[in-house]
Amino acid sequence: MRCLKTSIVFFLIALPLIGIRAQYDEDWLDREIQTKQRLLQDRRALAKLAASTNAADYDIGYYGFDLHVNVDSQTIAGSVTIRGKSRIDSLNLVELDLASGLNVHAVTGQAVSYQHGNNILQIRLPEALSTGEGFEFTIDYSGSPLTGGFQGFSFGSYNGSPIVSTLSQPYYAYGWFPCKDRPNDKADSVDITLTVPANLEAVANGTLKKVENNSDGTRTYFWQERYPIATYLISLAISEYTSWQDTYVSQDSSLTMPVMYWIYKDMPSPYTTDLALTPSMISFFSSIWGEYPFIKEKYGQAQFSWGGGMEHQTCASMGSFNEMLICHELAHQWWGDMVTCANWKNIWLNEGFARYAEALWREHIDGKTGLEAYMQILNRPQSWQNSSVYITDTTRVSAIFNRIVYDKGAWILHMLRKIAGKENFRAIFLAYRERHSMGAADTEDFQRVCEEVSGLDLDYFFSEWVYGLGQPHYQVSWHRVPASDEHWTVSVRIQQIQTTATYFSMPIELYLQTETGDTIITVWNSRRLQDHEFQINSKPLELIIDPDNYILKSVAYSTVDPDLVTNPTEFELSGAYPNPFNGSTHFRLYLPHDILGQLRVYNLAGQQVALIGDGRFRSGYRTYQWSPTTQASGIYFIRLESDDQFLERKVLYLK
Description:
This protein is of the alpha+beta class and 655 residues long. Among the domains are: 53-239, Sandwich (Immunoglobulin-like); 346-465, Orthogonal Bundle (Neutral Protease, domain 2); 567-655, Macroglobulin (MG2) domain (Immunoglobulin-like, Sandwich). Helices cover 19% and strands 39% of the residues. The protein is built from 10 helices and 38 strands. The strands form 10 sheets. Strands 5-8-3-2-12-15-14 form a 7-stranded mixed sheet, with no helix packed on it. A 5-stranded mixed sheet has the order 18-19-20-22-21. A hairpin with a 4-residue loop joins strand 2 (58-70) and strand 3 (75-86). Helix 4 (278-289) runs parallel beside helix 5 and helix 8 (422-436) packs across helix 9 (443-454). It is elongated. The two termini are 41 Å apart.
């Protein structure tokens, strides 16, 4: 149930001096999104694939690959053995997804006939199967897999060395092997046997059982995956790799696991520094989410030819290597691989979770300041498509993979952490794992776990934040009146002035700086306009809503003085507070009339380092905030510049 009562907490804020790493490389995310968007260009193929087979009538439990990869002709040849079970009575036909450009030569085993066309392989069973009865057949095939920037299989090169790699998400596993190409269908196990030229190394999911040198100048790699795996997470990566490994020790110290790396031969970039963080990242995420899900196999990272990364189970494929990309793809081993979104409408359960993992890692390394700074980087609605986090149209190019499912998805978790409480938030993920481990889940499943663990009715939260549009834009005004010698009455008006149809219901903390200390008051805000009034024991000096930035929002503060409730008569830029500071600093601007100008921050060299406001500044009284993320410690100048005004204040930033 929603908590309607107002709670008051008194505390003094002390800002620790914590160094924050500033090198937040966002290029990898854009490259990853662009890669995955290109994989969705063929709308008609996607729409047809989503409903063309009888995939709901059976489950696949096993894939056994025996593939020869011909780098020169850019073809594959071999077989895939499939075992499955009927989910219905009287199953007499199994329809698999397989690109029409691949040639099927034979289907042996429990098959009396087959037909291949329109990207569907139909296999007629010798007799109808009842629910739970199994089937097995082997498909011999060859040809050119769907390749290039728009499909899921790639032949390329680096410095003359061949590169072969796959990226099957979301619907392109069918481009290189016969399968049930749905994210919610997981095979219990997979064998991947790959024969490649002897100078190349073949990497795949699971554990490498053996390598055989053949007399024809080829080499065969035998990989085994013994954890359930979604179809799109089956992968291969082949090249002349430089490889090495670290070791991860399980949380209870009973097991060790190889942490493996494959990068292109003679790759000049010094990736080893960031890659060396991997074991400690595994340890951190295991400490908060439970043990690494595939502890009996490995965690690997293999370089491939696409941008960004792809969370292939037990072995992420990486277009490059930097700290946040490594962190993101690793987190997917829990959220995406161990628990997979049931369909692409729920992709935020994969990408939003992994995105928030980056912020949790920053908090682990840099403390609260690191968390707040990283979340503010992700508050960029101007970069998002105008849609909900829950994707309603999974055939539209760019709809599935857009910054909104990454960034806003992370913010949803950040807000949930505040609403449920840190301990409940941690328990939610452990319960979510316990219930859906090695399976698939949708948003309703996640909401159900959140409500059971927290004891809260969160229907309003998921309805507005996951299924709704936009974010709140709060307009806040307040004034103070002495009620007696020792008490002050404070009145606060909060308006939601966003243009979307959604009004957001949220508990909002109001931070009041007073003459004798600082006060936090929590109010429930759920309407377009709400007034709140309360008494405190000391004169309030400043009001800030959501001081810890737990709400995805934008804020415009009062245009009038809290005492006079009128416009100011002189131009004034107040001193910043706190000052010195290491996270955020605030300052007030008094304007007797509208002006055109810029509110900027400069360093000692006179170089602009931040633009806080540009354009028309309305008359009145407003509070602004500066939260540096990449600047070094030092003295800075906040300036209001216009044709007839120049106001300046000095601040000291300490990391």
